[in-house]
Records
---
Amino acid sequence: MRVKICGITQVQQGQAIAELGATALGFICVERSPRYINSQQIQEIIRVIPTNIDLIGVFANPSLTKIKGVLQVAQLTAIQLHGDETPEFCAQVKQLWPHLEIIKAFRIKTVGSLENIPQYVEAIDTLLLDAYDPQQLGGTGKTLNWDILATFKPDRPWFLAGGLNPNNILQALDNLAPDGIDLSSGVERSPGDKEIGKVAQLFTKLNQVHSKNKY
Ligand SMILES: O=C(O)c1ccccc1NCC(=O)[C@H](O)[C@H](O)COP(=O)(O)O
């Protein structure tokens, strides 16, 4: 299972989190987020990360020029679109950067929030399901209603996000079988400052599932 730790802002924390077992690191390219870092800062972190780790730039309603500017400096392997991007916009991004993984995030409020997803699957590689918040786009620490996802079987691999932490991760994986999990505020001291002890606790929990052959 893929494990993405999002909102990395510091070189040493990125390195430590990759060593603990994260398969993907996320970098917030959304300027109004407290976890925002610029493309030079992202590249400083990427420089010391092993090449088998996925490096995901998180954008919300970006222009193509904005994405291009970041990609010119930071060697990302994936683009996460976390705003209200249309399927057509996602397809444009995929066409321009076919070698990158395109992840489309959906903020799930009700079962109706899942209805739009089929329109996107042709244009993207991976889905990410996050909690809805009226004020913030992501990194909210809110858990989405997992019952809504009980019968969710999309045509693309998917990440479960939203309020996951070392205390609730096993319950989440008992209820659902995502292809990956994504955590941010559940493993940090304050926005953008990851708590390595909490990340270690997360992997201890995940290894318990692994030893029962469930992950
Ligand atoms: O994390 C942010 O600050 C953020 C800001 C704007 C758009 C997206 C953002 N985060 C996206 C993520 O992928 C987070 O990991 C995801 O929302 C889960 O966060 P959390 O509930 O804190 O685990």
Note: Residues 2-214 form a domain with the TIM Barrel fold (CATH 3.20.20.70).
---
Amino acid sequence: KGKGGKKHLGVSENSAFHSPEAEKNVSLPQIPTPGIHPRKGKAAIPHLRLGAGLRKPNGRRGALLEQCAQARGTRWAGVPPAPARLCRAPRPHPYLVPQSPASRSPDAASESSGTFCWVSGRETLAAACSPHRSAVGHPSARPPGGPAELPHVSPGWSGGQGTASTAAPPDSRSGPQPEPEADGVMRQLPYFCRGQVVRGFGRGSKQLGIPTANFPEQVVDNLPADISTGIYYGWASVGNGDVHKMVVSIGWNPYYKNTKKSMETHIMHTFKEDFYGEILKVAIVGYLRPEKNFDSLEALISAIQGDIEEAKKRLDLPEHLKLKEDKELKIRMCTFGQEHLGKVQDYSPLIWVWKLSML
Ligand SMILES: Cc1cc2nc3c(=O)[nH]c(=O)nc-3n(C[C@H](O)[C@H](O)[C@H](O)COP(=O)(O)O)c2cc1C
Ligand SMILES: Nc1ncnc2c1ncn2[C@@H]1O[C@H](COP(=O)(O)OP(=O)(O)O)[C@@H](O)[C@H]1O
């Protein structure tokens, strides 16, 4: 047992989900893995110790973590997770994500070398590596970029029900948007959110020939501040339906000079009928471009069609298809237990284990 074995790992109440794709698209800070052989992965990490406040995942939570690990086929199965194991997973790893220095750390400055975070749907294990100081765990901390911005909804989901998509736009933002900071945007992806489909201005189908399902105000309001306005792509499902490719526009539609921010999803699928009132779930996995103004309706339509084609292509890339098939995404997109969505208390570890065991 190494030094870390005596102390404990923490488990947070939050969830986040990052893909290797998100890491590829941006230059995230390199995770230092001092002393770790990439394949053998068992070298000592003399300076890596568990900090105060970490708890050993024993009892029900420990069992949960083991089951999650087993379900994922990670190397954690059957062993008590320790920071060394957190750090030894080869990169890129979909559940081991670099996190920015954590401000909630007792000594944030010391974490500048990187924080590691293993994430399963509900549980998050975190440890930080620093060449100068021992690791620090955050038992109750959310992973940076995780859904702590989604305070009143079920873990991992931004959602709500309502009747309109609103958010007061600063005037300066109604024009063309600057390229969002990749660091800010991509750290949030994949970003999951859900909500009841509400009515918009009815332009999508009629004027553009491209219907876009609108999310309610609460969903738009709960978007992480780091997710800039712009055009994104990802996966979507409606009600109990299958997962389809989608593009989503987040912002003020400068062409129409909307006064309220909205989030509008076009799903690349032909539906038999409208689905107002249904629960729409989306996983935003990538960014396409900022919102723009256009000289003509034709130019707007042509840009949106270009986005759709580009999104289709990108979503066919192996990393995206892999994500689509990922258990985590299936759990988040699937319908069993949907009645629980929105009630944090119903996302008990036992329900989560039950869901994993269903797969
Ligand atoms: C992929 C995509 C890209 C879009 N890009 C822009 C854009 O660059 N500028 C803009 O003003 N609106 C853009 N929109 C928003 C459309 O203008 C909007 O969906 C349309 O006004 C329909 O709105 P409605 O559902 O409220 O009727 C985009 C929508 C989608 C789906
Ligand atoms: N492929 C699709 N993607 C998105 N919405 C669709 C699609 N097919 C049908 N719809 C329906 O069309 C509605 C959007 O049409 P739209 O004309 O943009 O109206 P609104 O402005 O009310 O959103 C959605 O709410 C949904 O019910």
Note: Residues 183-329 form a domain with the Elongation Factor Tu (Ef-tu); domain 3 fold (CATH 2.40.30.30).
---
Amino acid sequence: MSRKNLQVRILDDRIGNQIPFPEYATEGSAGLDLRACLDEPLTLEPGDTQLIRTGLSIHIADPSLAAMILPRSGLGHKHGIVLGNLVGLIDSDYQGELMVSCWNRGRTSFTVDVGERLAQLVLVPVVQADFEVVAEFDTSVRGEGGFGSTGTR
Ligand SMILES: O=c1ccn([C@H]2C[C@H](O)[C@@H](COP(=O)(O)OP(=O)(O)OP(=O)(O)O)O2)c(=O)[nH]1
Ligand SMILES: [Mg+2]
């Protein structure tokens, strides 16, 4: 099991006490749950989007890594609580607070409790590109086909 050392700053005194520090729920978990660092419960009416603090910042530092903030399947499927940006991308040089854009895309209001697990953070590898401008590509089987080009339906 390979683990990456990651610098984290705790920006709110309640982290590690009233609001648990992020941890992998199981040995095989890909994501760390991010919790709502709120002063009081926050009700999201249908269609509302709010930027919610996590009380944490990370500095990934290594340009070959990034982090993604992804929805939790239970909240998204059962309650319509997903991310206002659909997916959050955390750059390796970002040092600000991790923020979760929380969107109620459902039909009923939803109250986010203080410390509620809102979304999950996944570290991912990144390859930065050096563009080589060419006139033509080598031929591929797919060519320019896309958007359903390979099927009949
Ligand atoms: O859900 C998110 C998405 C982004 N960020 C932070 C980390 C990321 O590195 C930074 C910038 O994000 P992004 O590049 O997606 O936003 P932008 O609209 O392009 O802003 P910028 O001009 O600052 O890059 O904002 C979050 O805290 N949460
Ligand atoms: Mg950007």
Note: The mean pLDDT is 96.
---
Amino acid sequence: MAILVAGGAGYIGSHMVKDLIEHGEDVVVADNLSTGHRDAINPKAKFYEGDIRDRKFLDKVFDNEDITAVVHFAAFSIVPESMSKPLKYFDNNTGGMITLLEAMRDHNIKYIVFSSTAATYGVPEHMPIKETDPQNPINPYGLSKLMMEKMMAWADKAYGIKFVALRYFNVAGAAPDGTIGEDHGPETHLVPIILQVAQGKRKELSIFGDDYNTPDGTNVRDYVHVMDLADAHILAIKYLEAGNKSNAFNLGSSTGFSNKQMLEAAREVTGKPIPAKMAPRRPGDPDSLVAASDKARTILGWKPKYDDVHDIIATAWKWHSAHPKGYDDRD
Ligand SMILES: NC(=O)c1ccc[n+]([C@@H]2O[C@H](COP(=O)([O-])OP(=O)(O)OC[C@H]3O[C@@H](n4cnc5c(N)ncnc54)[C@H](O)[C@@H]3O)[C@@H](O)[C@H]2O)c1
Ligand SMILES: O=c1ccn([C@@H]2O[C@H](COP(=O)(O)OP(=O)(O)O[C@H]3O[C@H](CO)[C@H](O)[C@H](O)[C@H]3O)[C@@H](O)[C@H]2O)c(=O)[nH]1
């Protein structure tokens, strides 16, 4: 019996695979390496290279392996790219979910844990954001993920496939042993970009907008450590296996940090000056996104270990310092 991790060569998926293996699970990875890295896949996992939109590929994986649950990370996730290339997001994200659910239905696989996102809420009406708050995404990425949540809900009613949608806020950090970390190409996320400036790989950080409706004018986000996130997925699998109903949970720290505060924290962690300049707003960015994540704590029993962004940044810094070129320096 094994867990299938779709997108297990990516940033969050590779940490999930490591966590599952450390919990004694057998793991199968399906990934087309479009944004992931072969070297990020744990050597104890069985790897199938292919696209989840390819039904024959999925049939091969499900025929060969005794899969009990699927954890689904295989998607595109760059907010600004989705604004300029919306159909790319509906094709890969929403399209991938159709094929995956059809294959699960036909192979009688009943559990899926899904990477959803704070971006499904759009501009929130309340802060912190609760799972019951309205979901009105303001970018195609968020809409593609909301459509995927709704498709799972209908697949539950029609075929009995139970799901947990985990709505991540901003994921950062790396495995504390420094073996795997975040390596997107091109990088667009705040924490790795700040650390690339600290490393001297970039001249300066551009802070996208200082005229938002927030205390210091820069966007406020809620950062969660990637290993805490992985733990929540393991709890979600157990929750489904215990016969519970489909559900959605926010995963965040319930504390917001502005882009300027994140820069300051990174300066403290790295001891580097990290030059920065103000730049125009980036399309698709809501002012603030902070999670109410007590539901995951109460129902799943989730206990995040990292509650200080300095510690989150420190694990990322360990990875970046040891792998200045990311996974490329292992080729
Ligand atoms: N990074 C964040 O802050 C964040 C926040 C909220 C939600 N998420 C979600 O978490 C998931 C993982 O994010 P990440 O940062 O690890 O991204 P990532 O790009 O590092 O990982 C995605 C992985 O999926 C693979 N993939 C993509 N499309 C595929 C397809 N059609 N078939 C097979 N494999 C495919 C890629 O090769 C990659 O290995 C995404 O679905 C994203 O929407 C991420
Ligand atoms: O060079 C940069 C990069 C980012 N930012 C700012 O930093 C903040 C965080 O940006 P990220 O790109 O790191 O993350 P996002 O908040 O855009 O999106 C992340 O979190 C979202 C949910 O909150 C989604 O789930 C999405 O998948 C995930 O990438 C934003 O205000 C952004 O404008 C900068 O100022 N300069």
Note: Residues 7, 9-13, 31-36, 51-53, 73-75, 77, 92, 96, 115, 117, 168, 170-171, 184 surround nicotinamide-adenine-dinucleotide (ligand 1) (CB under 6 Å).
